[in-house]
Amino acid sequence: MKNTRQIMLLFLLSVTFSIAVFLNTTNAIMILSIITYLVTLFSIIFVMMLENRSPHKSLLWIYALIFFPIIGYIFFIFSGQLEVKGHLFRNKRKYDSELLKNKKTFQESSNFKNLSVTQQSLANLVEKYSDNQVSFYSHTSVLKNGDATFTSIKQSIKKAKEYIHLEYYTFKSDKIGQEIIDLLCEKANEDVEIRLIYDAVGSLSLSNKAIKQMKNAGIKVHCFLPLKHGFYNQKVNFRNHRKIIVIDGKVGFVGGLNIGDEYLGRNKRYGFWRDTHLKVEGEAIITLQEIFLLDWAYVSGERLIDEKYFKVKLINDQLGGTQIISSGPDSSLQGIMSDIYYELLASAKKSIYIATPYFVPNKAIRTVLSMAAKKGIEIKIIVPEKNDGYLTQYATRSYFSEMLENDIEVYMYTKGFLHEKVIIIDEKFASVGTANLDLRSLHLNFEVNAILYETESIQDLVKHYQEDIQESTKVNKSTYKNRGLTVRTKESFARLFSPVL
């Protein structure tokens, strides 16, 4: 209904504007068209004002609507502005709140008291936002780069007995993709239940032949927000950026790697691919499972509440905690990942280590980094020297000046393309997942991250981060300040597109 109303308003604006400006009609018809156009336009502006957005953004869109007739409204629709408060996914959110809420129960642990007050505060905040508790009966292993990740994934798939659930932003039918598909088909022939969700935009290169092969083998495959259904509404702007695998409740995977040859460094354009993934065992798998099943219900209509999907083996030898959080436009609380990242960064007492392929932070993130730097906290940020896109590369660099002015160390990874999304705080707790430090991940995409507290895997993350520093070039403050006008222009131009990168 809401989408139909938007199309009707667009049609009405177009027709009345065209009659008033381009057609030679009677004065009465022209005046009626102008009045209808203005009433429609100001009705849109009035509704937008009632949503109480930030004043500068509201004014920007008001100017666009007034001074760029028709085109301004088209951009307004497809930018996601009308739906950023969750209207599109209201039904999904309602379903989320009703289903599975009694299926996810974690064992209490006295180890929570061993966390610092700051860590306890963060864990409580994450639970309040997502209803996901921190688990002390889980184990995480850091998988560095594609070789380790895909080796572990394939080994786990081969051991599957009951079910395999996969959810990916990018799933390609190239060499590694076909290897995974063939393995899945083999397991399907062994009567293992297999379900796959792939994103319509991220998986454009997934061939129809590969999809048919999987479906013929009995694998259930569904596309998240198909483009043909989202072209006339704003769903095209919201993408499922999650990377999740859950197998038999025994092992789960989450992190930065999609399924494609470039993640193994086989793509000449990107070269060596630096990334980080997590293997999860134990209680925390329940949360990964819940996220998948809710998304599955949304794309397929199939509600899975059988107890077998929630059985896990508790890992008792893990002192540290693992907490999974998902975010996206289906949440009633907007900007969850932005708030969690803010609180994570604000929790730092000694150090902040960030590795991200796209550094396009919002004002809140920039502010908390600036405040931390002024407190004397050591802050290091690693981004790739060469990005996978012109706009993302220069938009990222447009924030270097502000960081360097605050004496924040910025490094550009030179060995290849750095794609990991890692934040390490005080070498004591960390975030690993799918969410970049950019406006799209923080506000538009469906994402999932693991927050780690005092786990052994954090030391692996620190070690890998130090190795990444050695393979990076530190950005010199004075040299960067004297960069040429051409570079400054590219950065400023790219920064204009920050909200949709």
TrEMBL record:
Entry EC no(s): 2.7.8.-
Lineage, opening ranks: Bacteria, Bacillati, Bacillota, Bacilli, Bacillales
Protein name, UniProt field: Cardiolipin synthase
Annotated ranges, domain PLD phosphodiesterase: 236-263, 414-441
CDD domains per UniProt: PLDc_CLS_1, PLDc_CLS_2
Cell compartments where the protein resides: Cell membrane
InterPro entries: Cardiolipin_synth_Firmi, Cardiolipin_synthase, CLS_N, PLD-like_dom, PLipase_D/transphosphatidylase
Protein's organism: Metabacillus litoralis
SUPFAM superfamilies: Phospholipase D/nuclease (SSF56024)
Protein's membrane topology: Multi-pass membrane protein
Spans through the membrane: 7-23, 29-48, 60-78
Catalytic residues (UniProt): H241, K243, D248, H419, K421, D426
Coiled-coil segments: none
